[in-house]
Amino acid sequence: MVFNKKREFLAWNDFVRLNNDAAKWTKASRSSQLAIDGYWRSLAKW
Fold first, then answer.
1. Given CA atoms 9, 10, 15, 18 in this order, what sign does their dihedral have?
2. What pTM value is reported for the model?
3. pLDDT tens-digit readout, 20-30
4. Owning domain of residue 19
């Protein structure tokens, strides 16, 4: 249970960091939907 919580926490940190990076690259910081779309596109590249 603790491991799962820690993993979720780390995943959330990655999500926030990728959203911040996407906002810098695409200037989409004003649109959370675009930031989330950018996050999923970055996941698809993996």
1. positive
2. 0.37
3. 776 676 654 55
4. 2-45
